[in-house]
Each structure stands twice: as structure tokens, then as C-alpha cells.
Amino acid sequence: MNNASLQKHPTNSLRMAQRRAIGKLFTHLALLVGVFFMFIPLAWTISSSLKPAGDIYLFPPKWIPDPFRWVNYAEAVTQIPFWRYLGNTTIITLTSIFGKVLSVTLVAYAFARLQWWGRDFFFVIMLATMMLPPHVTLIPQFIIFKELGWIDTFLPLIVPQYFGGPYLTFLARQFFLTIPRDLDDAARIDGCSSWGVFWKIIMPMSTPVIAMVVIFTFNGQWNEFLNALVYLQNSRNFTLALGLRMFQGEAAASWHLLMAASLLTMLPVLVLFFAAQKYFIQGVVFTGVKQ
To answer: Which residue from 205, 226, 222, 204 is spatially nearest to 214, judged by alpha carbons?
Structure first.
């Protein structure tokens, strides 16, 4: 139905507008219901972290603690060497972020902006590695790190981050393709090398995709459990994920303290995401722009 026919039949136009409004209403209601159910585990975790130990097993469950036991958080960080585990996790995460951002942006820049023999072929090979489950390479990697003498150190968790990664490299490449090539040409006329174009032109304009890489890497390394379990043996080197698992085994009845420690572990991830949410969304949107 064209605009002329809609003008001749205002009733039809009104009905179509009403149908759209009703459709949007039902869509938003469905999304709100989904959000409600998704937040139930988080709400229960927060509630449990503020309850006395005996209130965890009440039925029907009591959602609002009475009284609020804020001391649970202080007790939770004393049950295990929380601050040592926090320091270990912070060291691993920050060094991994630096290596991931450096390697991913360099490789993505080479795939997106430079012309070299076999570029597209190697890009396809890199993407094909995404189909390889990480568990398949776990044993060969363990043998390599054992021969290097890196077992029970942070190196097996940090060094692989300096070799990029197919998924984040693909997203960064897609973002770099959205940057006009005229900027590269202008910089080269002014005497910039390829490194100069990367550092002075591409990187300052790539805040969204860098934020995306930082968030993905931070979340992955902060919550890493399997590799930490495989490579770390001395409890002094444990990360927060291993510490919480050990806490769960040693104090199975102290679920209120475990919930408090879990929330403290979760807090940095939430703060980082909400602080960089704007850039993260921009990075995801721009990586889908077709050139």
C-alpha cells in the first residue's frame, strides 16, 4: 500500500500504526520477562550473600535478608587467601590484556590494510582454527610448557595471549576495514611508514574495537578455570576461580560466604563492562559494516 492510498484511507493507516504499536508492546514485554528470569540467579546470589547461614535452606525461600549481614563479605575474604588470589588474577589478566591488544591489532592491521602474498589464504586458515576445540590442543600445549619448565607458573596463562586469537582478530580486521583508506594514503604522502600509519592513524581511531578486545580478554582471563587448574599446582599461585572452587570444597556448608566471595569476584567484570559499554557496542556494530 503506497502513501497515496494511505492518505485516501486514514482508517487503514491508523490500524497499521496501532498494529505496529501493539507489536512493539508485546516485544518489549517479552524482553522484560526474559530479563527478569535472567536476573533471578544474580538476585538470589546477592540475597544469599547477606543472609545468616541458616536462612539459605528455608522453604519457601526468603528473598529479603533479615537482618542484613554485611559482615559476610569480611568473613568471606578471610576464609581463603582472597587478596593473594586477587593479586595473582590481576597480574595474569593485565599482562594478558596488553599482549592480546598488541597482537590482535597488529595481525588485524596486516590482514586489513597491507597487501602481501597469501594474505587471503592465511586469513582463511586463521578462521579455520576457530573450528578446533581448545581441549584438542590442551595436551600438546601442556607437553610444550612442561618441556619449557613453565608448569606452576603464570607463563602458560599469559604467553599464549601474545599470539592473538582468530575470533578477536577477525572482529578487529572488520573494524579496520571501516576506516577510510584515504587516511592511509594521506599519511604515506606525509612520509609515514606502515608502522606510523598503524600507530598514528589506525590505533587512535580504534577505541571501540580496543575496548571490545579488552572486555573479552578481561572476562576470559579473570574467570579462567580450566587452564589455571591444569598449569597451577602450588596454592600460592592460585587464581580467584581456583580459590573459589577450593573454598567450595572446604566450606560446603558456608554457602552465604561463598556467595559473598563470588560477588566480590564478579564485581570488577561488571564495573569494566558498564564503564566501557558504549565503546563495546560501537565495536560490535562497526565490525558488521559491509565494505
So the answer is: 222
d(CA 290, CA 177): 9
For 150, list phi and psi in degrees, rounded to 5.
Answer: -100, 0
Q: Average of pLDDT values for 194-198?
A: 88
- The per-residue pLDDT for range 71-80, each reduced to its tens digit, is 888 888 888 8
- Residue 142's nearest CA partner among 66, 55, 229, 263 is 229
Examine the domain organization and report whether 87 and 207 are in the same domain. Answer: yes
**pTM score:** 0.81
Domain limits at 112?
72-286
The Cα 63–Cα 39 span in angstroms is 13
Statement to judge: residues 38 and 83 lie in one domain: no
The pLDDT of residue 250 is 64
108 and 213 share one domain: yes
Total domains, the chain? 2
Supply the DSSP symbol for 129.
Answer: G
| pLDDT tens digits, one per residue of 144-190 | 999 999 999 999 999 999 998 899 999 899 889 888 888 888 888 88
Answer yes or no: is 188 within a domain. yes
Same domain, 99 and 163: yes
- Which contacts (CB < 8 Å, 24+ apart) does range 19-23 have? none
% helix, strand, coil for the chain, step of 5 = 75, 0, 25
Domain presence at residue 271? yes
Pick from 4-18, 181-195, 263-277: least confident: 4-18
Cell of 112: 586489513
Residue whose C-alpha cell is 502513501: 3
What is the separation, in whole angstroms, between the first and last Cα of the chain? 33
CA nearest neighbour of 112 among 189, 203, 191, 186: 203
- Integer angstrom CA distances of residue 40 from 37, 45, 67, 75, 184: 5, 9, 21, 25, 50
